[in-house]
Structures are given as structure tokens and as C-alpha cells.
Amino acid sequence: MLKRFSKVIVGLLVLSMFFSMNTISASAQTDLGSVAEYIPVSVNFVYISSFKNSFDISSSGQVSITSKVSAYDIDEMHVSGLLQQYTDGQWKTIKTWYMETSGTNDTLSGTCYVSSGYEYRYMSYVNMYADGVFVESTSYTSNSIYY
Fold it and tell me: What was the pLDDT predicted at 2?
């Protein structure tokens, strides 16, 4: 009887782990040094409904970034974007963007120019607040682009 009960418990634990795994997938589309990725949000998120990011470097060295966030039942979201350059064996932040909003949908976007001869990547972070209390966050890191 105890062995059978143990097998049932183990089976339920395995099933619960299977259903609670974070299944974020990403698809990348590249075109002449541009990267656009969409991350469908898994069932583990309660407040974040979508988080879409894009990162591009034009032939003249102009960087364009976008982080579009949609959420449910929140009062405030904070979105940070960091442009990083790979120098001396490490990623260094060379430009930042930041946005706070009281809505449930918003877009952080920005541009700047970079020097040629380096790898660049874009990182973004979003923090959600409900009733003034932090409730959820996620982040994104693009593929690197050599310019």
C-alpha cells in the first residue's frame, strides 16, 4: 500500500514539474544585420501578456531599439533598455533607455549611433507593479550584431 501511494505521489510531482516548466520560445529573423525576436509568454507569467523586442543597426551605424510590453491587471511598469558593446573580452553598456508608465501597454524605443568594428547586443528588462507592489519581471537579450 505504501509503495503504491509513493508511486502516485512521484507521478503527480513529475506531472506538476512538466506543466510548470517555462516554455518560452523565440524565433529570430535576420536581415542585413537586423534582429527581431518575439517571445511568446509562457503560462508561468500572471501579469505579462507579451514582450516583443527588436534591435537593428543600419549600414550607417544607426542603432534602433524597441521593447513593446503588454500586461494584465497592473498599475505601473518600468522598462529598461541597454545597448552593449563587446570590448576587451566583456560586454559594456554604452547607452541606456528607461520608461515608467501607469498603463498596461507601452513601447520603449530609441536610436543612437555606434562605431564600426565591434559586436553589439540589446538587453531589456521589464518590472510590473500592482497596488504599488512588485509582482513580476522578465528580461530579453538579443543576438549580437557585428558592425
Answer: 45
